[in-house]
Amino acid sequence: MSATEDFKSSSCRDYGQHEATLPGQQLAWIRSLRGDALEQFKTHGLPLGGDEAWKYTDLKALNRRTFEVASQAPAIEPQQARTQSLIEAPCARLVFVDGLFARALSSASLPVGVSVASLAETLQTDAAALEGRLGQQVEIAQPGFSALNTALMADGAYICVHRDTPVSEPIELLFLSSGSPDRAAHVRNLFVLESGASAVVVENHAALGDGAYFTDIVSEIFIDEHASLQHYKVQRDGVQAFHFAGTHIRQHRNGHYVAHTVDLGGRLVRNTVSASLAGEGAECTLNGLYVASGRQHVDHHTRIDHLVPHAISREQYKGVLDGRARGIFSGRVVVHPHAQQSDAQQAHDSLLLSDDAEADSRPQLEIYADDVKCSHGSTVGQLDDDALFYLRARGIGLEHGRELLVRAFAAGVVAQMQFEPLRARLDQLVGEKLAAANLSGTR
Amino acid sequence: MLSIKNLHAQVDGKQILNGIELEVKPGEVHAIMGPNGSGKSTLANVLAGRDNYTVTDGELIYEGKNLRELAPEERAREGVFLAFQYPVEIPGVSNIYLLKAALNAQRKHRGEQELDAIDFIALVKEKMKLVEMKEELLYRSVNEGFSGGEKKRNEILQMMVLEPKLAILDETDSGLDIDALKVVAQGVNSLRSKEHAVILVTHYQRLLDYIVPDYVHVLAQGKIVKSGGRELALDLEKRGYGWIDQPDNAKSATVGAGS
Amino acid sequence: MSSNTLDLDTLIRRDYAAGFVTDMDADTVPPGLSEDVIRLISAKKNEPQFLLEWRLKAYRHWLSMETPQWAQVHYPPIDYQAISYYSAPKRKGDGPSSLDEVDPKLIETYNKLGIPLQEQEMLAGVAVDAVFDSVSVATTFKDKLAKMGIIFCSFSEAVREHPDLVEQYLGSVVPPGDNFYAALNSAVFTDGSFVYIPRGVRCPMELSTYFRINASNTGQFERTLIIADEASHVSYLEGCTAPMRDENQLHAAVVELVALKDAQIKYSTVQNWYPGDEEGRGGIYNFVTKRGACRGDNAKISWTQVETGSAITWKYPSVLLEGDNSVGEFYSVALTNNRQQADTGTKMIHIGKNTSSTIISKGISAGRGQNAYRGLVKVLKGAENARNYTQCDSLLMGDRCGAHTFPYIEVRNRSAQVEHEATTSKIGDDQLFYCRQRGLSEEDAVSMIVNGFCKQVFNVLPMEFAVEAQKLLDISLEGAVG
């Protein structure tokens, strides 16, 4: 590695080294998908200033670093994976370590009518199933990680729920990082819910070590007519980790998508979500909770396109910021011409617990149709003094009172999760994170 | 004053009125009753010229003019007033401003001098006493944050200030307590004279205890199936709408009870 | 009834009434921009050396800058060499020393625009500075105000008569390199208004400037500087019009406000630059930088704007809340019809302690108009107990227009309370029918509902302006409802 090498050049070098062995390269369409993406990444690179979409997230420090992908998944004890799982009951579970599929750790108890597999394996065995979907929902002609991921995608989950199959058991995708410093993982997921299908997917990112590693995840999600997906994404990366996730959803007529994103870990975290509501009656709900302390930086960037009439979108994000943490929410709702009767609501509330925490909020509406119901709201503030006083007047100590109020603030998001078994576990995880953060108000 | 012949009308493409016949002369009070969905409110809205209420057939003659050819505001200026079942809220537009603009639009139409602010306020205050409305409501935005009763009183106030030749009250009595009901009745009765006519659209006969109608008509499936005097309303009160024959086999009844 | 409510029945619907051209002999510099042109402008105005240096520095900086791209507006690149940077009505000798000496054609122009300059005809209590293309042609009530120590004059005169004040405050709120258009203005600005209110003085009348673009192929680059010394008060109004032309004309102004301790400035604008025709031909590009600094404790700056004109509006009247307990306000109505585009809003920068700001923005889009609110609320680290309340409402009329809301909220202090709300609505069919059933025409009903929508803003406009603003809205909405 030369002294002048930066993120971009080291990524391109990675591509050069691994090009031949990347999955799917035997197929012309995959080769051209990757090749085009690499060109786009070379052209646009990382957004290093002047890009409105990255206004509050500075990648200059990242750009000075270099990372390398693992050639094979590091060995992990089954017990280590089990303790990180969020679902106690037996379920379909794919485990990835440093972005590569770990078959030995995964369980394949699959309900009928569902395919759950490693994307890399599927590219070898059944690539036809992916063609026309993979790479179709993500925009690569822009700065950022979509192009990089498309060029270098190594593995990830392919889930296909077949027509009219309702799957109530959850499917867990456990992405473990060994925590090795300078390790890069390029994860690519593809979820397809065919007409009338439904599923619950729990995407679980956890770390076994605290090195400064890098993960970029791109998930493409297709919700066909009358299909529905509950998508949980829980991120507990290491304190020095870089985590960039892009989730790109296309919803057809009466297709429902509900996402709950919980961010507790990571040093620099960016979640990009873009949803295209392309069929009447489509409903998209994006909920998010982030609790950040220390020097954590958590950036949520969402965009919902109402492309047709009569679609509904709901967004509710909440952030708790302590220490020198910085929380960013940027949410855009675009109602396209003729998308009459669109109904969009968006809310972002953040709580600043310390003098050095920062919150930035950009709720945005872009509306080109007149018969719509759109609103957004955003608040930034601290705990309600009156409420705190009320608790104290009832004999509850200051610290306990604060904790109660912060927990109550955060609990609102968790309580909305439909998948019940996850709620208790997340309440506990959020509680632990809040307890670790400085709630005493002294500093 | 008003002559309705063979009136057929659709709402958003759905056929609701199927041949209404009604004659209203100056000085008369007509009550239109009927079960939910019989077309009562549709009739009221068709008379006022609401947009997606389409007349597909029949005649609507008011004071010698073809109502079908007049825009809603032209009908209003000619003296047709509709007290809305659900008065809308208009944020930022004060109640009194709307009232003044409406009154002066009508006065201008009649070739009368517009009222200046002082005369106008005097007129409104006088009418307000009758409807027992709080004065502060005048200065609030139109119907914004009004209670159900306040909205209805406000409709009656507008009616009294505008003194329409033909007032149509669309279920103005629904959801009102007895005091408010009396206020509505007082308002209507104060308008009663040789020149003015009133059409009361109502589901219940209790309003008719206070406003005694000259005629009562029963509407079912978009047609008047029975007409009579005040006693018809009392019958309906006792026996409900069930005994009213359906239009298909009730032609003789209609003719027999004709006014 | 609110005294601001306009009697709509008296409204005459008309086209852009200010679209005429006055035939004037003008002293116009040929198109083009260079250091020589800047020297020429400076020489024509007999400026002191410091100002020429200041201009040149701004110009050199401007050359290194790029046109801002982030706004939600689209227009072809502007050829800055095709614009004439100075055009002034020719006059005899040193220019008029009193109104009697002003060219009657100019007096007539302003009469036609409803701005009678003769004091005896004036609306009581409004002093006017009339800016015609590049120069101020007349300022009324100057002497009476001077007796109270108030300076109200053209910018050029201020440079001559009060160079110390100009040097002290010029560029202190909007630095010459602040942004592309501010830098251009700093290099080539020609005239504008200057106001100084001495300590403890409450200005007894509204001060106003009326901007008129007349000549073709020119831009208007005016500069306004208002200084309210400690515990003083002033209310200032600004109006603008231009002839109807097929070409686009650039208006790149800078307004700087300085409110010292306990001072209050209220700045109201009714902007009615020519908006272009129905197809979007012609119209003014209104690229304006307006900013005020609450430089002392308890200072207050309030911006109110009614934007109905211009092909493109790009402006963000802002307040730097430096003093403790200082207050910033922004009330805006922006209307875009036909093919007009507006990207407008405000910046509230909370710096001192216990500062508060209020933002009320009402956007109305009709025809193919595009209307964006863009606003920044920033609470710096030391700004204890900052408060902001923002409300952005959009009203859409028709399905070919657009309404956009882009707030930016940046909070660095945990004691802050920042609240933002936005809604989008259309004029309801139910509302229209209700009004029509009461005898109002559809147009009057629309006008009434729109005025109701804007009421929170109209209520804070000075009386004379409120009536004017409502009239403008009605005219601008003409044909918006079919």
What does this structure look like?
The complex is a heterotrimer of chains A (443), B (259) and C (482). Chain A has 443 residues and is α/β, with parallel strands linked by helices. Chain A is built from nine helices and 20 strands. Chain A has a domain of 272 residues. In chain A, strands 1, 4, 5, 7, 9, 11, 13, 15, 17 and 19 form a ten-stranded mixed β-sheet that branches. Chain A has a ten-stranded mixed β-sheet with strand order 3-2-6-8-10-12-14-16-18-20, covered by helices on one side. In chain A, a hairpin with a 2-residue loop joins strand 2 and strand 3. Chain A starts with 6 loop residues before the first helix and ends in a 7-residue tail after the last helix. In chain B, strand 9, helix 7 and strand 10 form a beta-alpha-beta unit. In chain B, helix 4 packs across helix 6 and helix 6 packs parallel to helix 7. Chain B starts with a strand and ends with a helix. Chain C is α/β, with parallel strands linked by helices and 482 residues long. Chain C has a ten-stranded mixed β-sheet with strand order 4-3-7-9-12-14-17-20-22-24. A six-stranded parallel barrel of chain C has the order 13-15-18-21-19-16. The N terminus of chain C is likely disordered. Chains A and C meet through strand 19 and strand 20 of A and strand 22, strand 23 and strand 24 of C. Strand 20 of chain A pairs antiparallel with strand 24 of chain C, so a sheet runs across the interface.
Main sheet properties of chain A? 10 strands, mixed
Secondary structural class of chain C: alpha/beta
User: What is the overall shape of chain A?
Assistant: globular
List how many beta strands of chain A DSSP finds. 20
The helix fraction of chain C, in percent, is 10-25%
Walk me through the topology:
The complex is a heterotrimer of chains A (443), B (259) and C (482).
Chain A: H1 7-18, H2 28-44, H3 60-63, E1 68-69, H4 78-84, E2 92-97, E3 100-101, E4 114-118, H5 119-125, H6 146-152, E5 157-161, E6 166-177, E7 183-193, E8 198-207, E9 214-223, E10 228-236, E11 242-251, E12 256-263, E13 268-277, E14 283-292, E15 297-306, E16 312-321, E17 326-335, E18 343-352, E19 358-367, E20 373-381, H7 385-393, H8 398-415, H9 420-436
Parallel strand pairs in A: 1-7, 2-6, 5-7, 6-8, 7-9, 8-10, 9-11, 10-12, 11-13, 12-14, 13-15, 14-16, 15-17, 16-18, 17-19, 18-20
Antiparallel strand pairs in A: 2-3, 4-5
Chain B: E1 2-11, E2 14-24, E3 29-33, H1 40-48, E4 53-62, E5 65-66, H2 72-77, E6 80-83, E7 90-94, H3 95-109, H4 117-131, H5 136-139, E8 141-142, H6 148-162, E9 166-170, H7 178-191, E10 197-201, E11 215-220, E12 223-228, H8 230-239, H9 251-256
Parallel strand pairs in B: 3-10, 3-11, 6-9, 9-10
Antiparallel strand pairs in B: 1-2, 1-4, 4-5, 7-8, 11-12
Chain C: E1 26-28, H1 35-44, H2 49-63, E2 87-89, H3 104-112, E3 126-132, E4 135-139, H4 142-146, E5 151-154, H5 155-161, H6 163-169, H7 180-188, E6 193-197, E7 206-212, E8 223-228, E9 233-241, E10 248-251, E11 254-259, E12 264-271, E13 283-294, E14 300-307, E15 312-315, E16 318-321, E17 327-336, E18 341-344, E19 347-350, E20 356-366, E21 370-379, E22 387-397, E23 402-411, E24 417-426, H8 429-437, H9 442-453, H10 455-458, H11 463-476
Parallel strand pairs in C: 3-7, 6-8, 7-9, 8-11, 9-12, 10-13, 11-13, 12-14, 13-15, 13-16, 14-17, 15-18, 16-19, 17-20, 18-21, 19-21, 20-22, 21-23, 22-24
Antiparallel strand pairs in C: 1-2, 3-4, 5-6
Helix pairs in contact in C: 1-2, 2-7, 5-6, 8-9
